[in-house]
Amino acid sequence: MSANDLKGFSLIGASRGSIGGAVFHGVNPATGESLQPIYHSAGAQEIDEAVQLAAAASADLARRSGTERAALLRAIAEELENARADFERLVPLETALPTARAGGELGRTTGQLRLFADLVEEGSWIDARIDHADPQRQPLPKPDLRSLLRPIGPVVVFGASNFPLAFSVAGGDTASALAAGCPVIVKAHPAHPATSERAGLAITAAVARCGFPAGTFSLLFDAGHEAGAALVRHPLVRAVAFTGSTAGGRALMDLAATRAQPIPVFAEMGSINPVFVLPAALVARTDAIANQLHASVLQGVGQFCTSPGLIVIPAGPAGDDLRDRLRDRFAASTAAAMLTAGIAQRHAEGAAQLGRRDGVMVLVAPAQAAGTAQPNLFETDAERFIADVMLQEEVFGPTSLIVRVRDDAQMRELAAALPGQLTATLLADTDDEIAAAALIETLTNVAGRVLMNGVPTGVEVSAAMVHGGPYPASSDARSTSVGTAAIERFARRVCYQNLPDALLPAALQEANPLRILRLVDGARALR
Amino acid sequence: MSANDLKGFSLIGASRGSIGGAVFHGVNPATGESLQPIYHSAGAQEIDEAVQLAAAASADLARRSGTERAALLRAIAEELENARADFERLVPLETALPTARAGGELGRTTGQLRLFADLVEEGSWIDARIDHADPQRQPLPKPDLRSLLRPIGPVVVFGASNFPLAFSVAGGDTASALAAGCPVIVKAHPAHPATSERAGLAITAAVARCGFPAGTFSLLFDAGHEAGAALVRHPLVRAVAFTGSTAGGRALMDLAATRAQPIPVFAEMGSINPVFVLPAALVARTDAIANQLHASVLQGVGQFCTSPGLIVIPAGPAGDDLRDRLRDRFAASTAAAMLTAGIAQRHAEGAAQLGRRDGVMVLVAPAQAAGTAQPNLFETDAERFIADVMLQEEVFGPTSLIVRVRDDAQMRELAAALPGQLTATLLADTDDEIAAAALIETLTNVAGRVLMNGVPTGVEVSAAMVHGGPYPASSDARSTSVGTAAIERFARRVCYQNLPDALLPAALQEANPLRILRLVDGARALR
User: Fold this and answer.
1) Active site residue A182
2) Are A449 and B257 within 8 A, CB to CB?
3) The pLDDT value given to residue A527
C-alpha cells in the first residue's frame, strides 16, 4: 500500500464507497491550490451500510479478549508507522503544519494506541467486581453478584481539524473506543482528506491482518455536515466523540438528545485556558514568563485546544513591564498559514471583534492576510472581563487577551467567574503559595486540569491526564478525551446474578483465569 | 423531634419554607381520606434559595474528608432509625404498604447509607492516579500528573413513589451524592409528603449535628411539576437523579439538554424485566416456577421497577401447563390498594389496553376497583410481540404478559428485539446450558443485570450491583442507581500538573497520607 492507493472514496468496512455524493478537494492552505484526489461524499445508503456493518461486528468485538484487542491496536500503530513517509508528505501539504510536527504527531498517535493496547492486555480496566453469595443472611439470602465494564456498541468519531493524526482518524477517540471493544465509524474532517484516507487504510489493513470483522472500522467522507448528522441520528449508533468548536459540539449534543433513544456525546470544545501570573513570580522572572507565554500562544499557530487565550496579570509597574514585553514579542512575530482559509478568516474576525469591544485596548492587531494569522494581543481590566461574556469566548488561533487585576482577591473573583475550561495555569513562586492555594481551590471547580509553572499546550497521554472540563470546555465534565480514562466513555457496567461459573465471562470466573485485579467482597484482590 | 414536628413546609437548609404556593395533602390510598398536615408547594424564591445555599455549601463539602462524610451518612442512618416508629406509622398510612415493609425498607435505607459511609471512609473510590515526572524524557520532558474524582456540585434528587424510604428523600441517590461530596436538593414525591418530611428532618438533624453547612440538604414540596422543572433548569444545579416513569424521566432529560449549560440526568425509568423459561427447567419444575413468578409479579402489588412484566415460555404441552398454573394463581389472587389512586387508574388502563391489542389473549383480567389492583395475565406469540411495540411497554403494577416461543432460536430472536431493560432473567437447568449461554450473550446487550434461577425483584445493594440499563430502562446505560458504583455519577476527574506536594489534595500527596489504593505509574499501589 502507498499514497498512490488514495482513491477519494469512503471506506465502508473492507469495501469502497461509490461515486454519487457531492465532491470536494483537499486544499494546500499555504498556496490555496486544490489537491488530488477528488473526494466523494458518502451517500445515505453508504452511511447506513457502515453503521449496519459496525452493529453486526459488535458482538464479535465484545467477545475478543484484551490480548486480541491489544494486537489490533499495535497492528494499527505499525501500519501507521509504515506510512510515515506518506504522512510527512500529506500532513504538511493539507494542513501547512511542518514536517517535524507530522512526525512528532505520528509518534504521539502510535504511542497512544500502544498505551491502550497495554491497558486492555493487562485487563484490570474493566473493574471486575464480585460479591459472593451468603445463603444464610437474614432476613433474605444474599445472591452472588458479579459485574464488569462491557463495550457499549458502535461509536461515531469526528476527526478534528487541528491534529490531523492524534485527534483524527486513528486518534485518541478511535483508540479508546476500539480498546473498549466498540466498532468505530469515523467521519473524516474535510480539511485533511488524504491524511484521513491514508490513516483509514492503515486501520483497515490492521483489521484484516488481525482477523477482526470488516465492520470494526469505517471511514466516511463528506463535503458538508449531512453525513455527520445522519451518523448521530442513526438508531444503531451508541455514542459520539467529537473535538472541535463549541457550536459544532453543541449541535451534535442537541441532535443526540432529540433521538428516540438519546446517546451520549463526548465533545471536547472551546476553552480560553487562563494563565494566572502571581505577584512574586511576576517580579522574579518577568522576561522568562514573557518568552514562555509568547511561545505557548504561537505554538502551532495557536491552533491548540489548550492555547492560552487569557493572561491574568496584576496591575502596577511589574505587570506593565510583562505586558510590554509580551506586546513587543507579539508585534515582532510574523504571519503563518492556518489549517484552512476558513479557520484563518474566523480567527481574523474573532480578533477584530475582540478589539472592538468596549474597554478593550489593542496592543497588537496587525492586518490579517487571507489564509494566515499574525498574532494579536489585547488588554482589559477584570471588571470589564467579568461583565462581558464575549470576552470569555475562545478565538481559535494566536490571539490572547491580557486582563489586569487589582489584587489576589480580584484574581480569585475572576477565576470564579470563568466558564468551564480544559486547563487553568498558575505561574507562581514560593512566596505566592498562599494566594496560589486559594486560586487552585477555585480553579478546580472551573477546569479539567490545573497546572503550575508550565504552559497548558502539550497534553500528556497517560493514566492521570484529564482533557475535558465543565461545559463549554466539554459536553460532559465527567469524561476525558485523552489518557487511559478515556476508555470509560465507551463502556457500561453489566451485572450477572447467580450465574454458574461456566456461563460467566472469564474476567468474572471464580479462579480469575485472566489474573486481573478485581474488587472481591469489597477488597481489591488478584485472587 | 417527633412526627408531631411535621409542619407541611419545605426545608430550605436549616430554615422552613413559607405559606404561598399551592397546597396539597397526603392521601391514605386504602381509604381515600386526606391526611394532615397540609403541604405547601415551594415558591420560585424558595427554590432559588435552596439551590443558592447548596452552591454556597459545595466548596465546604468538597473539602470534607471521607471520614467526615462517613460520619454524616452514619448520623443520617441513626436519625432515621430513631424515627422508626414514625415511619412504621406514616409509610403504611400514605402508601398502603404494610408495616413490615416500612421496617424492612428502613433497614435497606440505613444499610445503604452505611455502605456509602464505609466506601468514602476507606477512600480509594476516588481512583487517585499518579504519573511521576520524567525530566529526561525525549523529545519532551514528562510532567508530574495526578488526578482524582471530585464532587460535581449541587445534585437534584427526585423522590420515587414506590420506595418511600429507599428511593426517596434519604434513598440511594441522596446517599451516593452526599458520599461523593455533593449538596442535595430533594424534590419530594407528593404521594408520601409526611414520610418525606420526617426523613428530611432526620437528614437536617444529622447535618446540624455533624457541623455540615445548612446548604448540604434541602427538601422541597410541590403539588405539581413546576418546582422540579425549576430545579432542573437552575444554572447552579450540576446533575439530576430520578426514579420513575419513562415519560417523566424523558421530560427531565429533554429539559436538561436544552439548558445553556446541559447537565447529566440519571433517570431510572421503565422496564418489563423479561423472564425466560428454558425447556429443561420448564419440565423439571413447572409448579415451582409458577409459584416463583406469581409471587414476584405480585410482590409489593407489582410496584417494583424490576417486576416481571414479560414471561417467555416455550410452545407445547409443558408450556401450556405452566401457563395454566400461572393463570390459576393469578385468577385466585385478590385485589390490593396501590400507592395512589392515579397509579391504580393507570394500571387498570394499561392492562385493559394490553388486553385489547390484536393477537393478545386474555387469561386473567378482572374488573379493577378504584384505588386497587387485581392481577392481570395475558398471552401472545413471539411474532406478535416483536411486531407490536405497545406490547413491549411497561404496565406498572401486577400485570404480566406471557409470550410463547417456537424454539430456542425464536427465544433469542425475541431477546434481541427487546428495548433496554433493568433486568433479564433465565430459569434454566443444566440441560439448558447451551441455549442459556447464547441467550445470556444476547441479553447482556439488552439489560443492566442478567440473572439466573431467581426473580428480578429484590435489588441487592453492593459493589457489583447494576440497577440501570440501556434506554429506556435508564437515561444513561453507563450508570447505576443502586450499589457503590452509583457514586461515580456525581464525580468528575480533575488533574493537577506539576503542583508542589503541599498544594495537592491529601489523596494525591506523595506520601499517601490517606493510605488509599492508588494507580501509580500504571500499577495499583498502597504506597
Assistant:
1) no
2) no
3) 59
